Amino acid sequence: MIALKDITKTVRSGTEDLTILSDVSLEIPGGQFVALTGASGSGKSTLLGLIAGLDAPSSGTIIVDGDDITSMDEDGLARVRSEKIGFIFQSFHLIPSLTAYENILIPLEIAGAGDAESRAARLLDDVDLTDRGHHYPAELSGGEQQRVAIARAFANHPKILLADEPTGNLDSKNGLHIFKLMTDLHRQNNVTLVLVTHDAALASQAQRQVELRDGRIVDDAPAG
Amino acid sequence: MRFIFNLTRREIRSSWQRLLFFFVCIALGVGAVVALRSLIQNLTGAVGTDARALMTADIDVNSTSDFTPTDLSAIESAVKASGIVDGRNETINTSAMARPTDPANPNVKFVELKGIEPPFPLVGQFDLGDGKPFDFSLLEKHGALVAKILLEDLGVKVGDKIKLGDGEFQIRGSFDQEPGGTSGFRIGARVFIEKKAFDEAGITRNTSRVRRHILYRTTDNPTELVKQLREALKGTTVGIASYREQQENLGEQFARTENYLALTGLLILVLGGVGVWNVARAFVEQKRKTVAVLKCLGAGGNKIITVYLLQILTLGFAGSVVGVVFAQTTLWVVRWQFVNDLPEKMTYGVKPSIALQGIVLGVMISLLFSALPLLQVRNIKPKLLLRDENNANIRRLDPAKWIFGAMSLAGLLGLAVWQAGSVKIGAFFLIGLGVTSAVLYLAAMLLTWLLRKIRTRRIFALSQAINSLYRPGNQTRIILLAVGLGAFVVLAVQSMQTNLVREFDSTRNARLPSLFFIDIQRSQINELEQMIEERVGEKAETTPTVRARIAFVNGEGFDLGQREVRQQQGQIGREFAVTYRPNLDANESVVAGQFWGDAYDDEPQVSVEEDMAKTLNVSAGDSITFDISGRKITARVANIRKIDLRNTRTAFVFVFRPGTLEAAPQSYAATVLTRVSATDRQRLQRDALAKFPNVQIFDVADIVAAVQKLVNNFVLAISFVGGFVILSGILILIGSVALTKSQRVYENAILKTLGARRPTLAAILIVEYGLLGLLAGLIGTVFATALSYVVSRFLLEISWTFDPILTVEGVVITTILVMLVGAAASFDVLFRKPLGTLRSQ
Fold it and tell me: Across the interface, do B3 and A109 touch by the CB < 8 Å criterion?
């Protein structure tokens, strides 16, 4: 489902080149739940961003569901994200000018889904926010915002769900609720789930743990 | 498409408040364009292009001397042959002195007298004070109809008698509107009497100011008849005009004025466009994360640009509609304030065609000025959701931005050309705007550079305020450019007004006469001189004047068939008052050729005023043939003369060398320099008229007042436009404050965390905008002073004096204005809690 080969990512920092990822190769089969772990600055989020096509690697290839996304332009990448990938961020990244319901509606409208409105309403119900649909993100709690983000990520039935520390900004109770919601949806829909987390307890519930240090994979083993 | 429309609708719903300044910028610009164009078009409709009513006929045959029998028979046979004339009358116009017959009433007034005969008017109508229709019998047996204002000026009422020349006339009625009346520049009020009473009253027919008209009404297009009349009267001094030609000329003049005003409106709209550009940049800045999220969710860059473009166009359209409403309100304010100064028939509505034009302009300006900032959306990468790098690269110039920049410029040129009605003027407008902006921008760069050099670390608020002016993404130079431009326009106009008004201040020109006496007969001159000397204590300066027309220049006549020549006919075809003298006047200098000496020379020689020499295209050595009382005199142009009008007593376009004109029929003009009180002046006028009723006396104070009124109206109009420009500058300022507000909020939070107290932060804010205002004020005043100097000295050719008070006022007011607006727009920043701000970053 996801194949990364010899991925290197270098960015310019002031006058120097900074290598964030170095020769990373990784294969994730369809339906697997993988936890990416590692210290701050180890390159986890960058790797997740590269898989989502949010950024391009400096070298190497990335194949997502059979498509080589490293050779695609911006619009091609956007299409792949729209059709195949759902993304959940630590700081939610909802569109502040849209209501909770409309935030879920947006990816459906981008994809041109015929039943967009009814699906958005259903998704809102799936995350128990039917009553809060007309509220703007600023009027929702952190946990509620992240539930909207999850519903948005699942809107187009993605084959891959990428989550970048989705519980990092939440208290433990809300964090657990979100984690459960995510893993339930992963199981029900047989979605490939890649979770970036610092939380060893959450990581231990994944099928596989990949640990990064200084931009390299230092450990790749089944969890638990 | 559904995504695009739905998102556009939702974005407008939530972002309209943030784009309010965008909206106001467009509304103000469109309001200015629509208001200015409507004002001039409505004014045109009221006074103007109805040349037929102005002429009171379809064809006007006129002359300053009596028509000769040959002329008359040529005219009548052409008219008869045409078969299209269904009405004819004759009128005679001149200026005269009017005074009440009541000896207890000392008033005297200069009037414009019109002698008429039935059927009058052929076209148009009287609007009499008592509401009754005009009946010619009102004028029979020495009756007069007078403009309402004259009743007040002379202190008389309907039924009273006034003296015109030697004749006494009873005022039988007054009018608000007369046939052929305009609201143009006029020194005397109009008085109508019977044409045959002219001679009976002894009103002189023998002056250059008497014009005789034969007017015709036609049943068909008069163009062919006019052509026949011109052919029949070739070589004579008779003038022929048709309402169609007049209409064409008037229409062209109004169209030109309208296009110039429209360009002024466009200037304001372009400044509004700069505001739009700022707001659009701020908007994209604020929407970075939203754009990144949308891209992350699979929306392509073009789709997102389309959403924001639609949003901008919708707001541009709504702003333009509000602009039209604003223009209509402005027109109502104009009616409320100036209804008495404007023509009675003036309407105050915005025409649908102008409103539509304004809306198209508003939408186009919104599009042109927001296209480039919106293109930055393409450079926003979704990766910023993972790692927020500085966004310097979204402003990077790439080929697409160059192409869009060039297209925006071409679009702007298109709008300028459209509004100016000419490619040349439109291009000049854009180049002029570009050059002015570049110069002001360079000045802004220089001043901010200097400020940085002299900054001190000793005063915390001052050094922080100066630092703030260099904040990344700050609009210091753009604000300086915009506000400086506004201050520049207003101050330049004010400075020119001061100099113009000073120019007309008769007390400053020692050689400007206080009274002019003209049409004095040779037999009257000594006695009048004596009377003036007794009353005023000054020997009047007398000048012989002879009436002459130009017949040929270098042996060639004027071809009145040519339109350009016909348009200049007023200048070159008129009758001139010429004089002769052996010397140059004190305010004259020779610019080409030589002034005559004392040696005898029997060749007639003439000295020509510089501008007339240019109009006639003559230089020293050429010849001009004058028609003087039917006799042709050819004179060699001996020299070209410059007259310093600032220091003038009399200004003759043609001065002959003594020896040619002494025997020609002539009258005298006399001037008095001594300023006498209004009562003494009135008494002298009255007594001089009692003894010499043919003499006309101009009171310079009256003329100066009339000119000053004209200048004041002009200044008011320009200040109105300047006010719009300043307002645009302020909007740009507010837009710029909004653009850097998030950064200011963050800086303030950090300073508060580090222990800065609110008064310190307030001081930084006030000093920052105070400095900005000071720099803008300096730029505005320096360039306004320079422009006022150049325009006064080289265009208006008037003296120029530096006005220190105006300069200081300009700088102080601009400083305070910018300080208040800038500080007010940012003041809420001081009251934000630092923790919330720092957390959200």
Answer: yes
